[in-house]
């Protein structure tokens, strides 16, 4: 008789390549999922979905309803590539990823930035930026009036207690999870205590950023976070410190726009945006998304770095509860970076997207 | 008979030390002005003025009317130290420097960031951030409502064509002035063409940042700027590029908040906030202000770095039309940094504020 096996979990993943190099890296992400060791007992099915500037040019909308509906009704998670922004204002166009984050209530944008043994300038960096993903200036409520001295435009920055609480709570959870992973291998860890740094500009924005700060303090004062050290930084000073002593930071929680800026800044610390993943996380859904853009300058040359996407695949799996699969992907990526034999040009290497992918697959 | 001399120009300077190390560095700034070579034919008179958190605690206002009136009626320029922010929200307190910028219509915040031969990690950086200083989220129009899910706070981000135009225009003027200075000593210059980089986030904020971007493009398209190369960067990407290739940048023009963040980021590139000056510039007034804060951690130890303030003195003089005096101060500071004999602890040295000041004075 056959040996009894646990039924495999099947995850349905939406693939949204978007524009530019998004179309080169998302297929690499798919290959990773298809090539996971069978011992993980995971199966995947895929559905190709449209979004982006080209979709806008063809159909008049950058985010077709079908894409949103399919994600909501059929999928467990998704991978999103990148979208081009038009170089001058185009009526009716607006970023599909910003809309998607809101429509699926993916309230946390999680952006880990980490050096590996082979990819560091001496200082080991291992931090995560946890960016609020649904409000702040991203509510995009703007208006323009014609004044006596010309046009005056206004935008709303909205900060709610609700969104500030849940983002701070998940930041705390992530800090705890990281601490658990570290205590499993104490030898390689340099950090004793979990830490969350709250970023804001409440010295100027006493109500909005003041609310973010207070609420974050309250969320992180919960009993379950008693082992987490909580501190705060004004956003300008945060950027300064991020560059002066990045090794000091663990989890950084920030309102949407500061999180956007900080994560690009942190990416610069590890050498290339092409290495930095993100996940847009909601209560029961996650979209993996490389932090880089559509990179029109290198599009079509087959040299875009797939690492950010591959790590985003792992991050998505982590938030879908598949931490073991995630750990294996991270380890394969670290192996590729440490060996430094197959690196794309953004990393100073000469490898193609395909060669890097093959090298990671070999290590999986 | 006596030789005929040009009448000395007398400038009256308001001194606003503020809180913390502001009180240690502003006296150093005064000493520099008092010690300028007599060949410059400049005289100074001083008036001490109050502002800051301690002033708020004593008088209930962080920026007394008397300070504003005296600056407006009596002074040609001023030096501002730093102010403490209360660590939790204090009703009625708000930043006096933000208020001062608006009350005196000091619409440009000019923040040069520069390495010297002795103070660089290889890449020579010589850039200026020109930050709009009167609007954006700094209008501080906020409100909070109690919603069904808790509090919701909103702030207005205001961008006007008027303010965007004049800040872009002065950014262009600064680019031209820098080009002139470079052509006077072509041997030491590595840059051929003046450049202005417009920073914005118009891919999300199409109206507000879109207006900034369009207006900046228009201002910089003026005939007088035909020798200036104009480009643009989305703010997150700007932070990334600033760290990856800072040597590429010349003049960066940005709305208020991005300028605030970018200038702290740029400061990290030159090793210490203690080196970075700023000037708050209006049509007929300039306030020199070191970019650092009140630094409660080192207050009272006599080890705060006076360089940011000394350079701010030079910058103030530059915008008051005294470019020659400014150049002499910059040269004395470069001398101090290149010799690296008297450096404060933030620079890895052991010198006191007084020793650094004395060394700069010696070189003046
Ligand atoms: C493309 C843009 C709208 C987006 C953002 O600002 O969120 C990007 O910068 C990111 O970080 O994912
Ligand atoms: C103290 C604070 C209000 C101020 C600002 O945000 O402008 C400071 O950060 C600066 O850069 O001068």
From TrEMBL, chains A, B:
Enzyme class: oxidoreductase
One of the GO BP terms on file: lysine biosynthetic process
Source superkingdom: Eukaryota
Cofactor(s), by name: Mg(2+)
Entries under PROSITE patterns matching the protein: IDH_IMDH
Pfam families in the record: Iso_dh
Pathways per UniProt: Amino-acid biosynthesis; L-lysine biosynthesis via AAA pathway; L-alpha-aminoadipate from 2-oxoglutarate: step 4/5
EC number, as in UniProt: 1.1.1.87
Repeat is among the record's keywords: no
Keywords: Amino-acid biosynthesis, Lysine biosynthesis, Magnesium, Metal-binding, NAD, Oxidoreductase, Phosphoprotein
Catalytic activity: (2R,3S)-homoisocitrate + NAD(+) = 2-oxoadipate + CO2 + NADH
Gene Ontology molecular functions: homoisocitrate dehydrogenase activity; isocitrate dehydrogenase (NAD+) activity; magnesium ion binding; NAD binding
Protein's recorded name: homoisocitrate dehydrogenase
């Amino acid at each position: 008789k056959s040996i009894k096996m646990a039924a495999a979990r099947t995850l349905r993943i939406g693939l949204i390549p978007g524009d530019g190099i998004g179309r080169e890296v998302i297929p690499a992400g798919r290959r990773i999922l298809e090539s996971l060791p069978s011992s993980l007992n995971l199966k995947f099915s895929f559905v190709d979905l449209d979004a982006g500037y080209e979709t806008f040019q063809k159909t008049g909308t950058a985010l077709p309803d079908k894409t949103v509906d399919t994600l909501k009704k059929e999928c467990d998670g998704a991978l999103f590539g990148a979208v081009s922004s038009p170089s001058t204002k185009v009526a009716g166009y607006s970023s599909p990823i910003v809309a998607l984050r809101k429509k699926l209530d993916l309230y946390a944008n999680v952006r880990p930035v980490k050096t590996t043994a082979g990819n560091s300038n001496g200082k080991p960096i291992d931090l995560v930026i946890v960016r609020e993903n649904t409000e702040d200036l991203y509510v995009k409520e703007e208006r323009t009036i014609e004044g006596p001295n010309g046009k005056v435009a206004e935008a709303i920055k909205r900060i709610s207690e609700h969104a500030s609480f849940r983002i701070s709570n998940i930041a705390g959870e992530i800090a705890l999870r990281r601490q658990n992973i570290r205590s499993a291998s104490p030898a390689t860890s340099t950090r004793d205590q979990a830490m969350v740094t709250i970023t804001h500009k409440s010295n100027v924005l006493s109500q909005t950023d003041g609310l973010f700060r207070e609420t974050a303090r309250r969320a992180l004062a919960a009993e379950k976070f008693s082992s987490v050290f909580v501190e705060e930084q004004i956003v300008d000073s945060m950027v300064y410190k991020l560059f002066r002593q990045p090794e000091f930071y663990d989890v950084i929680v920030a309102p949407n726009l500061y999180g956007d800026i900080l994560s690009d800044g942190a990416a610069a610390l590890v050498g290339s945006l092409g290495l930095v993943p993100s996940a847009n996380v909601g209560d029961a859904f996650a979209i993996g998304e490389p932090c880089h853009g559509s990179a029109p300058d290198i599009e079509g040359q087959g040299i875009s770095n797939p690492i950010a996407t591959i790590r985003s695949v792992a991050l998505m799996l982590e938030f879908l509860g598949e931490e073991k699969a995630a750990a294996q992907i991270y380890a394969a990526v670290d192996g590729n970076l440490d060996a430094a034999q197959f690196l794309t040009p953004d990393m100073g290497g000469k490898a193609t997207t395909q060669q890097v992918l093959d090298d990671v697959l070999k290590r999986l």
